[in-house]
Structure to design on (377 residues):
């Protein structure tokens, strides 16, 4: 009659994923420490949390908590295996003595234990970067956040902090950039009537009516616009402003034809209608557009970093390098956002100079005692 307990143990072992290479690295490492317990002192910054299989993490926690036996004792008696089973079983369902023998068979060379440990830490680092990238994507696409720009920038800083911490564990070395095929940027809702298209159109019409604000809005770029047509019209305005030419709906239309806008199917009437309803402040609408651009770039950055982590061909060094480059692209938009939202500097009030004293007769020069005595002689 089959033993139900042994059947349950076999089912628990069947739940362990068989494909990831890190599983074999974990088995090889644990097998090395079972065969030569003192190898645990050569592994560097490895902890139970780095293991992908919970049973392996519980077993390594037991190994770390126990004192390895002397080599001669370990060669004669199974005290190490017995101690490991007693310590790990309450935290690792399905762990059996036969699985410990499976681990020893999976170890090609116990002296390679530090290399196996490095593989395990690298896999955990990859998962940590992926989780940070997923939180960045979630923040960039959450419409319920009260201050989305600040939240997204905090998430980007968290990704950078993860990369900085891993740089100390994995020193950089010369190597190529990741060759991962990156996903295209996420699409933005630019349908007529949406907030995105409406606010961009308001910026254009208001800037055409109040062009004096354009030189102060150098933090806004044509590529920040979600609707390409709007970006071209904004470039027309900035070109006119740079040359010092007059700016209104007609001059913008004339400049637009030189940028090829009318040749692409847009009519002159459509351009004039787009610039005919100013409302509000150009700086306000510009900040709304730039914030959407910041969130869009953060979304793209998170997707790119996630793609790097999903590509097993990338070494951890390539993964860190590619992720830093993706964050640098986001940093350029971040710098413009901080410039746009920087509070105006308040200069200290100028104090009035004290009134000058009226000119009067010069004060009499004091005469010294010695001088007066000489004069009396």
């Amino acid at each position: 009659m089959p033993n139900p307990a042994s059947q349950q143990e076999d089912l628990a072992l069947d739940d362990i994923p068989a494909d990831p290479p890190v599983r074999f690295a974990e088995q090889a490492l644990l097998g090395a420490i079972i065969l030569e317990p003192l190898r645990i002192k050569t592994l560097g910054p490895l902890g139970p949390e780095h293991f992908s299989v919970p049973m392996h993490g519980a077993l390594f926690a037991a190994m770390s908590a126990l004192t390895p036996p002397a080599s001669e004792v370990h060669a004669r008696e199974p005290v190490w295996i017995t101690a490991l089973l007693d310590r790990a079983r309450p935290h690792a369902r399905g762990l059996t003595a036969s699985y410990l023998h499976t681990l020893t068979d999976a170890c090609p060379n116990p002296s390679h234990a530090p290399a196996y440990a490095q593989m395990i830490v690298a896999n955990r680092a990859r998962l940590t970067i992926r989780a940070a990238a997923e939180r960045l994507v979630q923040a960039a696409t959450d419409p319920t956040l009260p201050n989305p720009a600040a939240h997204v920038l905090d998430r980007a800083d968290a990704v950078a902090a993860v990369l900085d911490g891993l740089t100390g564990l994995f020193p950089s070395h010369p190597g190529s950039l990741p060759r991962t095929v990156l996903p295209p940027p996420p699409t933005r809702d630019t349908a007529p009537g949406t907030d995105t298209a409406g606010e961009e159109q308001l910026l254009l019409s208001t800037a055409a009516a109040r062009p004096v604000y354009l030189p102060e809005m150098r933090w806004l770029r044509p590529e920040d616009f979600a609707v390409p047509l709007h970006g071209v019209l904004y470039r027309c305005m900035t070109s006119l402003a740079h040359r010092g030419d007059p700016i209104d709906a007609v001059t913008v239309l004339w400049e637009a034809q030189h940028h090829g806008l009318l040749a692409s199917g847009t009519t002159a009437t459509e351009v004039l209608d787009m610039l005919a309803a100013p409302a509000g402040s150009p700086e306000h609408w510009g900040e709304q557009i730039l914030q959407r651009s910041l969130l869009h770039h953060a979304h793209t950055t998170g997707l790119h970093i996630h793609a790097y982590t999903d590509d097993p061909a990338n070494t951890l060094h390539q993964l860190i390098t590619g992720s830093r480059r993706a964050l640098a692209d986001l940093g350029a938009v971040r710098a413009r956002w901080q410039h746009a939202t920087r509070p105006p500097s308040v200069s200290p009030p100028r104090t009035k100079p004290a009134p000058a004293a009226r000119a009067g007769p010069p004060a009499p020069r004091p005469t010294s005692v010695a001088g007066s005595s000489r004069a009396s002689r």
User: Anything to note?
Assistant: Residues 282-310 form the longest helix (29 residues). The radius of gyration is 35 Å. Residues 219 and 335 are 9 Å apart (CA to CA).
